[in-house]
Amino acid sequence: MGIPFHTLICASNTNNVLTDFFTTGKYDLRGRHLEMSISPSIDILKSSNLERFLYHVTKDGALVSKLFQQLATEKYFEISEDLRQKMATYIEPGWASEAECKTTIKTCFDQNHYLLDPHTAVGLNVALKRPPSARKLLLSSTAHYSKFGKDVLLALGLKPISDSPCELFKQLEGLKIQPVMNESLKNAMGKHEIQNGVCSNDLNAVKEKIEIFLKELKSS
């Protein structure tokens, strides 16, 4: 995109296989188990982007293919120290525990009245652990806190009033927080649910269900 980023921060939650890899050069899934967290989009063991990143750094398709074939069969591979150091010119790794993630959500809210979703909280926590630097840091949030209403309320020390996403949405809105709720999202949450059915695993059934849904939507 032309933006002169110096390095990127690779922030992981407790499933910190990438932090270990960028730190040691060893991608080791042996004995690892996926841990469920409140930041589920980064609950990973096998990174889908790492293969492309390694090719970007090495431009060696044969090497990358060999490494990931070994990962598939042995659940392990190791790169050279030279390659690990080369990756370090692009990536700064770090990770945050569940407790650190929750504390970051609450601290940011208490200090700035700004509510983070759990994924952004992981990124902020890792960013704040970095050594002081004169370089500016950009933290870009990719999720909305309302998707994780129950978890962020608990992180704030508040009791969720319901398991219903709509009710949790209203509870969050009542906190008068930043960023403000999106108006289109607020309007959508206020409407009655139109589609809540389940169809069979059949293409024609799916098509029929979609057509019925669109007709109902058009007439509503």
From TrEMBL:
Name of the protein: Threonine synthase-like 1
PANTHER family: THREONINE SYNTHASE-LIKE 1 (PTHR43515:SF1)
The organism's taxonomic lineage, starting at the top: Eukaryota, Metazoa, Cnidaria, Anthozoa, Octocorallia
Any one Gene Ontology cellular component term annotated for this protein: cytoplasm
InterPro entries named in the record: TrpB-like_PALP_sf (IPR036052)
Cleaved signal peptide residues: none
